[in-house]
Specification:
By secondary structure, this protein is of the alpha+beta class. It is built from 9 helices and 20 strands. Strand 11 and strand 12 form a beta hairpin. Bound molecules: adenosine-5'-diphosphate and magnesium ion. The site of adenosine-5'-diphosphate has 12 residues, from helix 1.
């Protein structure tokens, strides 16, 4: 049973620095949970508390119904994979993978079969007699994974395990880690600052900032229904566009207005802000939520001067000045766009986001 629960957990380091505040989180058995946020937001601190490498200074950490606050690391049945791999340089791959089992005095034959099983799964069998300095980065990462797998823990903890790999390898290893999770049928808690990695791997994502949880939800929740501007801007590439403006009500329509621009807000937003004409708001438009448009400007289009055009394979990125704000969009190749010319873009109104100008919280979710 590998359900992990944080109840009002806080962490202050001995120097007084508060790295984590009032964390409440219930990680289900066999869940793939990703902790996501910028460097320094408290991800590793949280993971290290699960591992027992850092003590909990406030609140309770539970595994199932057992309070773990003071249980030493070797009694927690967790295995951790670090960004740095942390392999023993003078031991062979075989000995690196076997080490944890030897320390726990498993019988030799069992160690051998577990090491060979893990090596087969990770396709590193031919490398078992090599030392770490005879391996590529990707192979070292597999050895680090192997060392965790053979322990057959009920919880896998991974701290940015792919950060040292090149971009192509990182993407293929993502798929392998996902398969590993399915095969192992155990709880994974995975730390990353890479939003794409989080969106691909997670059952649920915890978005953190400066030691405070911003939002917990499925990748879909977090991407489609961000609770505040930080979450909205942390996920998505290129990042979501923000535009300052004000609400206006015209007949039965609720509009976002900024200079000449007027966009009709969709019913699910309009119903929440219909009584707030004049309120200062921030509109969010994701780069992919517009399309090239050749007709007249109307209520659901925006127009602006093209500042740059960047081809990206099947699509192109347009940088457009709309009412003095630089916006980035991703559109198809078909539109004829030239720097210095005008772009008229159809907005997918249903996918607009709206935030409060003062506290940057979503006005919709
Ligand atoms: N031993 C420590 N003493 C004091 N502050 C620390 C210590 N370890 C980490 N911190 C601080 O706590 C914050 C969170 O660190 P960390 O959990 O490592 O962030 P992340 O993994 O999200 O990059 C950072 O500001 C970091 O400087
Ligand atoms: Mg970290």
């Amino acid at each position: 049973m590998a359900r992990i629960k944080f109840e009002g957990v806080g962490k202050s380091y001995p120097n007084g620095f508060v790295a984590l505040e009032n964390l409440n989180l219930d990680i289900a058995d066999k869940e793939f949970l990703v902790l996501l946020g910028p460097s320094g937001c408290g991800k590793s601190t949280t993971l290290n508390m699960i591992a027992g490498l850092e003590d909990v200074t406030e609140g309770k950490l539970l595994f199932g119904s057992d309070v773990m606050n003071t249980v030493p690391p070797h009694k927690r049945d967790v295995a951790m994979v670090f960004q740095s791999y942390a392999l023993y340089p003078n031991k062979t791959v075989y000995e690196n993978i076997a080490f944890g089992l030897r320390m726990r005095k498993h019988p030799k034959a069992e160690i051998d079969s577990r090491v060979r099983d893990a090596a087969r799964r990770l396709e590193i069998e031919p490398l078992l007699e090599r030392r770490p300095d005879q391996l590529s980065g990707g192979q070292r990462q597999r050895v680090a994974l192997g060392r965790a797998i053979v322990r057959q823990p009920s919880v896998f903890l991974m701290d940015e395990p792919l950060s040292n790999l090149d971009a192509t390898l990182r993407i293929s290893m993502r798929a392998e880690i996902k398969q590993l999770h399915q095969a192992m049928q155990t709880t994974f808690v995975y730390v990353t600052h890479d939003q794409a990695e989080a969106l691909t791997l997670a059952d649920r994502i915890v978005v953190m900032r400066s030691g405070v949880v911003q939002q917990i939800g499925t990748p879909d929740d977090i991407y489609e229904r961000p609770r505040n501007m930080f979450v909205a801007s942390f996920l998505g590439n290129p990042p979501i566009n923000f535009m300052d403006g004000a609400l206006a009500v015209e007949g039965d329509r609720v509009l976002f207005k900024c200079g000449q621009l007027a966009l009709t807000l969709p019913p699910h937003i309009a119903e929440r802000v219909a009584s707030q004409a004049g309120r200062a708001v921030v509109l969010g438009i994701r780069a992919e939520d517009v399309a090239s448009h050749s007709g007249e400007l109307n209520g659901d289009s925006l127009q602006g001067r093209i500042l740059s055009v960047l081809p990206v394979g099947s699509d192109q990125f347009l940088e457009v000045d709309v009412e003095g704000t630089r916006l980035f969009f991703r559109v198809g190749k078909e539109g004829q766009h030239q720097v210095g010319g005008n772009a008229t873009l159809n907005v997918n109104l249903n996918r607009l986001h709206l935030f409060d100008k003062q506290d940057s919280q979503s006005l919709v979710w």
